[in-house]
Amino acid sequence: MKKLMFIGTIAQTSLMLAACGNSVDASKQLHQVKAENSSLKTEVKSLKAQIQAQNGDGDSDAPTQNSNKTKSSNAVMGKEFVLKDSHGKKMAGITLTSVGQQWTSFVTDDDMLSDSDFNMGHPQNIVQLTFKYTNYGVEDGWSPDFTVYDGTGAEAKDTNYEDGGDDVSMGHSGTATMWYCLSLPFAKNNKVEIEYSDYIDDHEYSAKWIYQH
């Protein structure tokens, strides 16, 4: 009986170790998939921006509206900023809903802050931004992208991780959560500036949100 119990204990321990190993492997694979997915989204947005820039800067005998710009004074957090063309037509809307370190499940479920690819070596510097956006009149799929600056005026580094943020067709809305690495810990930054600037149908739009804490 003792031999059987001993063998059974070894077998049970082996199964537990195998399960733990499988769990670690699955967690690593999930981190990798999240990173690859976010990287692909970033590449797609970058290519779209290049195409729009080339279309806007290309020589053409036809008249263009490249000189048209829609700029805003500071947009207001929690209130939709509407992008309108020169005729007043609503093209898109962006609402900044949160800024800070109240981490979503995307971060907490897999302890992303301990991942050096995510935290960029400075987990205390990571800031999380959440947006809602609506495509009112853009015929092609649309989603916004942003540039972030910290309280020193330095441009924050994009972690290239993003939850949501897919292009939406006309009449539809989406949400996006993005993470950026500031030059200083978030707690020591008295201000975070978020800027949007892009071309839609040869019309340049820009907006700025200023978050202070």
Summarize the structure in words.
- The chain has three helices and ten strands; from the N terminus they run H-E-E-E-E-H-H-E-E-E-E-E-E.
- With 213 residues, it is of the alpha+beta class.
- The protein has a single domain, classed as Immunoglobulin-like (Sandwich).
- Strands 1, 2, 6, 9 and 10 form a five-stranded mixed β-sheet that branches. Strands 3-4-5-8-7 form a five-stranded antiparallel β-sheet.
- A hairpin with a 2-residue loop joins strand 9 and strand 10 (203-212).
- The longest helix has 56 residues, at 2-57.
- It is globular.
- Residues 1-7 and 56-67 have low confidence and may be disordered.
Note the main attributes of this structure.
10 strands; DUF4352 domain-containing protein; disordered N terminus; Immunoglobulin-like; 5-stranded mixed sheet; 5-stranded antiparallel sheet; alpha+beta; single chain; 30% helix; signal; 3 helices; globular; 213 residues
Brief overview:
The chain is of the alpha+beta class and about 210 residues long.
Write the layout of secondary structure elements.
Layout: H1 2-57, E1 69-70, E2 74-75, E3 81-84, E4 90-100, H2 105-108, H3 116-119, E5 126-135, E6 147-149, E7 157-164, E8 173-181, E9 191-200, E10 203-212
Parallel strand pairs: 1-10, 2-10
Antiparallel strand pairs: 3-4, 4-5, 5-8, 6-9, 7-8, 9-10
